[in-house]
Amino acid sequence: MRGTIYVTLPFLLATTVGCGTGVKGESTDSGTAPPPIGVSSTAAVERPIRRFLEVTGTLAAQEEAEVAAEVQGRVIATPVERGTRVAEGDALIRIAAAEMEAQAAEAEANAAQIVGRLGLADGSEFTVDRVPEVANGRANLDLAQADFERAQMLYDRKLLSKAEFDQRSAQAEVARRQYDIARNGALQQYQALLAARARVNLAKKALADTVVRSPFAGVVGQRLVSIGDYVARGTKVASVMRTNPLRVNLTVPEQSCAVVAVGRPVSLEVDAAPGQRFEGQVRYVSPALQTDSRTLVVEALVPNNTGVLKPGSFATARIEQTTERPAVLVPSTAVRTVSGTSRVYVLSGERAEERMVTIGQTVDNLDEISTGLKPGENVATSNVEQLADGVRVTTRK
Q: According to the model, what pLDDT value does residue 340 have?
């Protein structure tokens, strides 16, 4: 059953007028454009820049030694603690030295005794014929030889008997042998002196080793003994680290091995010192890749005069290359990066055109645009966070 709807004329007119009014108001609102956004702009420039390789690594002490005692004895002093800064040769611990002092005194006395026998008390150098026993034997030999020569002359003239001549000859031979014995004895005494002096040196070294010293300037990492401990030879007593400069062990990917060489400048950053860059230099490049990771081990030295850098810290480093290549650069303020996507806004007339770009290196507050922008194109450098594709802009002077 169909129904019929009757609409009165006044209601129809009112409805028509209301609808017309609503359409007109909507048109007026949509025609009101937002004001343009004021921006500063600059042109993308192309110029050569020095390339660098960005790698990661770990800081390590340049030198780290676990210092051990070289003599046995009881510890009587520990002048350092963990974290103490020491210079080369500073005392780390002291060991009782009474026994070593006695051994050194005994060795010196033995050496002095031999020196007296050899007649070297005046400090003169050893000459075998100046040894008293040798000089005495030489004098006796000269006298016996002279007597023998006189006897030989008399015997030749038939003025001396055969028996007396033989006696003088035997005396000369005895004097010669006594001289040889004295000379050999002096040479043996001299070798004994050298051995005695060596024992003196060993005794003095043992005495000096009762003070265990730092092998280089650095920081004490640990002290492993206390007063009263008895240490044997080879007992570790402390560890010392040299923290200036520091070594940076870097890993370079296989495809970048050709651009790394000894002497290349290196700059690095660490999380412990945000915003600071530390300069160093490549000291060592491994001759072979690591087979497990296909990476190259590179070591650099970085000065650490202030002590800000700590061994064990993670570092992000840049290794500079020697070659320069052209790059398109814009101020870093022109780039807006959200969720890993970078964009710039190119000014085309009174509108901003959004461009997705790829960022390369950063040089002096300028970002390299690898893709997405050409040299000479104007980009907005202020109020970038307010821009969108197609919005109206006005350029500030």
A: 87
